[in-house]
Every structure is written in C-alpha cells, then in structure tokens.
## 1
Amino acid sequence: MKVFIETYGCTFNQADSEIMAGVLRENSIELVDNPDDADAIIVNTCYVKLPTESKVINRIKRLQQQYPQKQIIVGGCMVEVDPKKLDNIGPNCSWIGPHQLNKTADVVKSAVAGDVVREFGFSDEPKVCVPKIRQDPYVHVIQICEGCLGACTYCCTRFARGHLNSYPIADIVAEARDAIEDGCVEIQLTAQDTSAFGKDTGERLSDLIKEVANLDGDFKVRVGMMHPKNIGDDLDDLIEAFKLPKVYDFIHLPIQSGSDKVLREMRRNHTVEDYKKIVYRFKEEIPDITVATDIIIGYPTETEEDFMQTADLIREIKFNLIHLSKYQDREGAISSSLENISFDEMKRRSKYLSDIKFGIIEEENKVLKDMELEALVVGKGSKGGFIAKTNSYIPVVLKEANLGEFIRVHIDETTGTYLIGHKID
C-alpha cells in the first residue's frame, strides 16, 4: 500500500503531515513522492485565508477527476471548519481531522478497501514525542502546544484547533535532543501562538526556550509566532532566553492593525502601546533582532484614519518582515457578518502599504552590504544555489555551500526581500 501526502499552510500543518507520515511508516505503509504511484492521496488542507481555501478546494476536485480509481483523503483545518462544503465537493472522500492523526493508518487502510471513513472531532492526543518523518533532514519542527486563548473576530483557525493544549517541557526537550543527535541543525518551536504555551499548565515559554537552547550540539532555535497579549509578565525572561547564542534573533509578533479602535473590534485584547513596549524592549536588549509582523488590510470597520495609523506604525517601527493580507471573510468568523470595504479601496490600501514595506526593508537590508555575517545553510534555492539564514534569520542566497553547515558569509548585494552573498573560506 502506497500513500502520497500533499501539504498546505503553516509550519504547524507541515508538522501534522510529518506525524501522519510517521504513523503510516509505523504501520508498514509506504510513502511515495508522486501521486501517480500512490494508492491513496492525503491532502492536508489549510483554511486560514480565502485564496488558500480556493486552492485546496480546486486541488481536491482536480485529484478526484485525475485519479478516479485512487482514494482521496482530506486532512487539516478544512475538516473541522467547513465539513459541509467539503462533503459537497468530495462526497466519496475520507477525512482525518487535525486531532485524529494517530488514526491515519486506519483511515488509509479502510479507504483503500473501499470504505469512506471520517475521523474528526477534538482530542488532547499529544503531538510531541510521536513518530515523525521530517520533510527536511536538517530542520526539526516541534509543536509545543495546539489551540489558542484568543477569540479574534476574523479567525476560523481557532475552530479547527480548539482550546489550548500545551505539552510538557520535558517531552519537548527530549524530542529536540533526539533530533539534534540525529543531525538536525535547526529546531523550530511552533504553535498557533507560542506565547500561550504553558498558560494551561503553569509552565513558561521562556523556560522552554532556555532548556532547548542549552542542549549540547551545534544548532539554532527558531521560535514561532507570539500573540502580544499573552507575553505578559514573561517579557523580561523571554528577552533573556532570546539572548542565548543558539536562539535566532528573530521574533514574529503580529500587530494586525495600528489602530486601537480596530484592535478592539478585532478582539485582539492588546493596544498599540502594549505592542510597542514589547518591540522596543526587544530592540533595546537585542539591537540586531529581526521583527516580523502580520497586518490585515481593510478590516470591515477600518476607516481611512485607522488605515493611516497602521501606515504610521510601520514607518515608526521599521519592521524587517511584514506579511500583508487583504481582509476576506472566513467561515464562522464573527467579522463575516460585517459589510466589506470595496475592492478598489482594498487594492489602493494594499499598494500603499506594500510600497512602504518594500522601501523600509530595502533600506534596512542595504546597511548589511559588504558585511561579514555568521549564517546557517538551511536549504536549496528555488532557482538553484543555497539559502542560508543569518543569526537574525535574514535569508542569504549563495551559489556554493553545504546543507546544514555553519559558515561566515560576505554580503555582496541586497534586495527588498533577501541578501546575496558568498561563503568566506
């Protein structure tokens, strides 16, 4: 029996696919790299944004047409968020909900035998210290918790991932240690919100980072997205954890809007000043830190004044990385009942912020030209060569390098999205 797994979405979803692959291998089911060779195809869906929803729906439809004799199994957030639509587009598809990964082999076997099996619903089944097959032999992703404490009005992911379920620090450290001994050079700590880690168990993210970063071996730790409202009184200890040499100088801290009014209407439960306090404390203590953020353009209640406050915040903080998303309704989200801003106005606002974004990042990167930096080679480039990450997690494109090695690079050129350099012998 052979299975092909196709994954969409975030790092957490990619880790779910690695668990599904591990469960299949444990049950002597072969994994293949091409759907043509498979008896069953698993589509691990993402549902966070409308374009991704459209992509996975079209893919599920196309696979059913292209492979009428193969079994199509749908996993991921769509199973929990929009089961009615999923049933309409794939009435003969089996399902594996994101909380039912331990049943992957059973679902595959039943589907190949001709039965439609749908495993979904919530569970506290742990996703740490379980069988996994890494997609990248040098990068190990650890899910430190699942679910969140938020009720953001625009979000549907929380309906798929459920309440917060943090995993024990001891188990996470054990998995990290095994991965490092297996040759991994980057440990990614991921969650829907890493700063929520331990709020349900009494443990703290700062302690987790310190324990992982103090393990023996040559590796780097990347900490995933943190919701500003959940950092709370852990800020000072978090900064100390990020100062450790094995932790990337990188924080992903979504703001979503520079307007306090819009933040209230989004139910973000933090203010712009709360956010700035966190960012400036990190920058004060770690001057080279890369600050990444997410911004939603054109939330239904966003006025021109709100929008300009967001633009002003971007100019003030000078983010190193900005994920801009045009607002779109999501299944079940509270904001979907509001009247949307016009397409033309959304397009104008998007271009305005994009121009600011690329101007800032280009200027910030220019400072690095002709510098020599430490970097870790983490992957191959899509157009050839290699990609290394600096200590500040800025990508550097190299012609020659070896995967998984720590090197020094000379920065030859800079762009608005990445650096170009060469390895220093």
## 2
Amino acid sequence: MDYVLIGKIATTFALKGEVKMDVYTDFADERFKTGSTVYFKKGKSEYTAFKIKHKRYHQGRLLLSFCGFEDINLIEPFKGTEVYKAKEDILPLAAGEYYFNDLKGLMIYADQQLKGEVITVEEGPKYNFLRIKTTDNKEVLIPFIPVFIKDVDLKAGRIDINTIEGLL
C-alpha cells in the first residue's frame, strides 16, 4: 500500500488525549475526517492504523483524538510522529499537481545536466518552493511555477528546470 504524508503530531493538548497537528495538506477537512483512518509511521516502513475519534480547531490549530487513546498518557509517546493517509483512500490530484512527499528525492536537471536533488517542498504565500541540495552542496530555493519548472517526471525521478543567472 502507498501512503501520502498529511501531517505530524506536534504535541499533546490537555488531558483527554487530544493532539495538536502540524498539517501538511491543503485538504485537512477531507484527510482528517472524524471516523476515518490515518496511519502513524514508525521506523522506515511500518505503518499502524488509527481511527480518528474527534476533530476540532482551537486557535487556528487542528486538534485530533483517536479511538482507544483518550488519555494523555496513551498518546504522549506519539509526539513527533508523522501521520499518513493511504493513497487509495484519497481522490487523485489533477494533472500538474503533486504531493509534496512525491517530489522529495527527485533529481533536478537543467539542460540535461544534473544540478541537485529536492530535499523538501516549502509552502510560500503565493506559490511553493523546492528546496534543492545542489551538486556543489549548496541549498537553494526554486519557485515551483511554470516559469522555472519545465517538466516533472515522477516515474523517471526527475524534474527539468529552466534556469536564470543566480538561480543555482
């Protein structure tokens, strides 16, 4: 089964087992529906299913509780845990849209020359950025917009970009 990263447990909240979530999806209401299943990742490839008991917002932060974990002492060990959704449980994205997790690790090419690797995707106020570790070990941000992004090929594991002076 394939999974999509949708958030991370930031910390616990109060005594009844609620957690504050760092949300990594634009579809929080859909991904974190009450009664739906999410997966906590342990280690490199072990995923454990958790059913969402309750969802609410407090001061702009998403709070969740999980069935069977209605006590702070039960949920405390999961602070910092990444939360995933099964890819089969979510609607497919439109053409030209990508999950951040799918872009991480892709190789960046300009004029058929390897320039670096995507280490993370960062959200900006108007558009997202690819944080690249270049072949000469620098970190740079490339706007994820058509002016700079020529092609994304997930199967080939590469992104072809247009460069301008000073970009890399």
## 3
Amino acid sequence: MGMFDVADKADTLRVAVAQATVKVSSETIRLIKAGKSPKGDIVESARVAATMGAKKTSDLIPYCHPIPLDYVHVDVTLKEASVEIQAELKTVWKTGVEMEALTAVSIAALTVYDMLKPIDKTLSIESVCLLQKVGGIKGVQEKYGRPLKAAVLVVSDSASRGEREDKSGRLAVDVLEKYGFIVDNYGVVADDASRIEAELRRFCDDLKLDLVLTCGGTGLGPCDVTVEATLRVVDRETSGISEVLRAYGQRRTPTAMLSRGVSGVRGHSVIVNLPGSPKAVSEGLAALFPGILHIYGMLEGHGH
C-alpha cells in the first residue's frame, strides 16, 4: 500500500483538463462584475489559487507523486448564477496529471467560496470533475486490423548464463503478450553469428513476423556476436530505437552505455537487440513500448 512504483515507466506528454463550478446568486455576480467583492478580485485570485494548488498536490494528497508541471492555464468564467473554473495542465513525465488538475480547480473553488462568503449565504461548490485526460500508454497505443506476431530469441554463451537469459526471454514474452502480440516462436541459440543470422532470416523471410526481439550477446565480450549477426540481416537500421534504449537504461544503470545493441527493419519485420540480464530487458521493454507500435503503420505506408 502506498505510492505506485513508476520507476520503469517512460516519460510521455500528459495533459489533463478539470472543471469546478461554484453556485452563487445573480446579485453576487453583479457585485463581482462591478468590482465590489469585499476581498478583492475574484477572477485573478482564483487563477493564482489554482496554480498554487496544482503545484502543492503531492503535499496535499498522500499517494500522489510529486511531478514537474510544464504548463498550467486557468480560465475563470462568470455565468448568470455561477463561477466556472477550468484548468488545463501539461507535464512530460511517467504518470498522469489529472490529480493536479482536479486539485487546481478545487483550491480555486474554495478560494472563491472564501472570498464571497461575507456577501452570499447561498454559496455551494456544485461540482468538481475531470473533463479530459490524454497521454501515457493509451495516448499512443496503435490498433490494427490483424494481430501482430512476434518471436523472442535468447542468445546464451553457456549453461550458467542460460538460466538467467531464459528468464529474460520469458519476461519479453510476457510483455509482448500484454501489448497484444501473438508469440508463437521462442528459442534459445548459442553465441554463433551464423546460427543467429539464420534464425533471424527465418523469422523475417519465412514466418514474416512483425517483431523479433533478441536477448543477450550485445556486450563487448569475445562471444557477443548478436549485433554483427543482426547487421547482416537488416535492410535499414532504426538508430533512434537503439539510442532510446541506451539513454533510458543509462538513467538507471551506469553500465548501460556499454551495450552495442542495434535495431532495424527487414521487409516488414522489426528486429531489436536487448541485453541479456532480466533488469536490462525490463528497462528496454519499458522504453520500447508503446511508442514502437507506431512503426507498423509507417511500414504499411500510413504516414508518420
């Protein structure tokens, strides 16, 4: 019980819009417009209060993560018998910003209530609601008219490392299935460049799989040859994918920069090299999904 662990989640653009409505009398609206509110400017005070409330959300709500706010915009509208407050917030982070948006409009509504209570005994906060939430996995998840198919190839140089890397492979299968892939092909192969190459060609050319993940053989050891085998197979490298995997891992593990893993496309098949350790595979998959799913629409000519 407590705060969720979001350490392995990728940063994405998150947007939330919330609204609060404070019911007031029509006479109070007239006084506000005439500048006769006893505690000053209602509109500007509500805007400032909403911004401050958004920044203090994690201090007020126990299990909210403290997150960086990149944008806070507050609109205060005077209706016939109500004050309507809307707040739009943006962040580039691991979790959503909806609680910050809801807190912003709630604090603004309480501020309006406090400022108007000397002149209006009918005050009530009628509603606080979330109007929009965008971002995260659901914000970039792709849908296709057919199921995507994948394979996981574990590259192991010895029996002692094989058990560890097999765990990595099974982890990869679980994540692929979570994202809707059908994983009918799972194999373990020795650190032999020709055998790795043959398996990759079979997955791409014969089985025409959408995604092939390799686990292991990406380091600088004398037996690490997965990268060389992959480069002989791909038609085009997808350097951005490999760069993101290393950058994501480096923020968590200082040795991630030593991975030589590459990625690329052969036909309509995507090949991605992951390191061999379960931790590195977990981090790599967190960085890979869901953004990589957009590649299939691009390969089919649907644009960028």
## 4
Amino acid sequence: MMKLDAKNSKKLIYLCSLSYFVSYLTRINFAAVIAAVISDGYIGKTAAGAVTTVGFITYGVGQLVSGKLGDRFDPKRLMTLGFALTAAMNLLIPFVRGAVPMCLVWGVNGLAQSLMWPPMVKIMKTAMNEDDFNKGCVRASLGSTVATILIYLLSPAVISVWSWKGIFFITSFCGAAMAFVWFIMLTKIEKSADITYALQKSIKKRTKHSPAMPIGLLVFTLAAIFFQGVLRDGVTTWLPTYIYEAFGLSSEKSILTGAAIPVFSYLSLSLTSLFYNKTGKKPFRCVFSIFAAGALAAGVLVIGRGRSVILTALMSALIVACMHGVNLVLISFLPGIYGNNENVSELSGTLNFMTYVGSAASAYGFALLSDKFGWNGTITSWIVIALLGTAAIAVCNILNKEQKDER
C-alpha cells in the first residue's frame, strides 16, 4: 500500500480539520451556554456540572472502546456513525428537562464523540508519512480551536435573539451534514491511493507498541495528561460562570469573555508545533516548558484574582492555551512515536481517555469547590494542579532519558 501524494495528503488534512471542527461544535456547545442555562433557571449549577461531567466520562471511557474499535473495524464508518449519532443527541437535548434526562442524552453524545479522534488518528497514520501525519494532527487541533471561537462568539448572539436551545439546533444540522461529507470525500481520497487499513481481527494478533513504552513512563505520562485535562476543560467550562458570578456581568457578556480562550489556544498550537521541532522532536522536554508556563499564568491569576475581568480572562485563556499545547504533543504526536499502523488507534484512545478523566473531575469538582470554598479557593486549586502536572512531566523527562541511556 502506498502513501498519499502531497495533493491528496492536503485534501485529507483539510477534511480531518473540518471533521474535528464539527465534532467540537457538537461537543463543547453545552459548556459554552452553561451560564445561560443556569441563569435561565433551567437547571442548577451543580446539576449542570453533572451533565457536563457525564459527557466527559462517557467520552473518556468511549476513547478506550473507540481505540480498540478503530484498530479492528473500518475507521471511516465508525466516524460516520459518530457524526450521525451526535447530530441526533444535539437535536434532542433542547427537548429534555431535568438533570437525569439531560445526563442521559449528553452521555450518549459523549459516546458518539468518542468515535472521532482515535479512528481519525488511525486514518492519518495509515495514509500519510510522518511529517504529513504531524501536520494533520496540528491542523485538526487548530480546527477545534476555530470551532471553540465560533461557539463562544455565536452563542451570545443566538441567545440574545433566540435562546440557548438554538445553538443545539444549529450544531445538530452541522453534525448531520458532516456525516455525509466525511464518508463521500474520504472514499474518494482512499481510492486515489488504494488505501486499506491494517485491522486487527483477533486480540491474540495484537502487536506491542514499538518502541516499547515503559510502564513507569506511561504512568507518569497519564498523570500529566490527567492534570492537563483538569485545567484545559475545567477552566474552559467554568470561566463564563466565574465571570458571571464574580463580576456581575450578564450571561451573554460572560460567555463572550470565553472567546479569548480559543484565540490564545489557536496561537498556542502553532507555537507548540514550532517549539516541538526546535527541541528536536523531544516530546517530554517540550511539554515541561509548556506546563511550567501554564503554572506561571495560574500564579498570576491567583495573585490578581477578582481585580479585573480582562486580567482574569487573559490569564485563564493562557492557562488553557498551554494545556492545548500539552494535549497536542502528548495526545497527537506521542501515539505517532510509540504506536504503529496496527495499534495507533488504541494507544491514542488510551492516552486521550485520561484527558477526559481529568475533564470529568474538573466539571463536577470545580462546581463543588466553588460552592464550598468560593471562587477564590477554586482559582487557587488551578496553580496546584498546574504544578502537579509540571512535576509529572519532570519525572517523564528523567525516565525517558534513562530509557535512552539503556539503549
């Protein structure tokens, strides 16, 4: 099987970017409008946090399942199914009321969303060379930040002239359309190079990750990914609510402050890609610097908390931006280093699973922290989490160096 030529590699990269863009529209929309849902009296803050948490949990657990499925079944069809199912759940969520029904619907949406990333990594790893694979990961991640910008800019406008429910109707249409576009366009690209996927037919035939990832290195990598997930999605989810409660802005204006997050994240992904190459493609050294920068931003936020809306929004955006950079290296680049065509989907799903364990912990945990200790206590926890992530990556650096010395 030959790899795609430059022209078709570009087509696949753009298609994957568009796909991840739409997947984010249909995934983060609830978090984007959560302040409006709460202020509308539709659901309480803790209950809203529970809905978001359930979505993160099912998405995270689904990563493990999706990772295995992506190595055993046609990844193109898995993603098509994911888009169709998420479109249905986005259409359904405005019509259900109460914590339990909303948790059920958004939980199914999390499972649908989990059928996106691991199969996509499988497709890119199989069809493209290493450089194009890395470019594809960066571009797809950039697609997610553009989607976040759009959601946080579009939501206030839709809420002001319609309702927060309108956001879900719009994203449902996008998901349904993407199911058709994805299947048709990818089929044409596959035929151009006779792309076929190495699908595992039996667990007994599974191959080991090559080069092998020592268990100690894997454990501390997963720990760093967990802390990254806590900060990335926790700060993104609760920043508008924090602004709304701490500074007395309207829900629409509070949501709008969240638009700073994806702008910074977009820049972070581009800079992280450059920095990764500058460090000689050494993932743990690159991530250590980025995590440390996030800890510094958290420290500035703790010192200046409650003094300025602008400072709060900017420092929060910088924290999340750094975590997006960490995510790019550990979730996107690392599977390309330690995985192969037969198991890359499973490795990607395993690593990404831990991101959403952290996301789930933060979605509900930060709501509880803010209720019990106020937002000051919650903001203080962010610097602690950032420092723990930095420490975990420091250990990864040491273990990775020891592994190379043994070789």
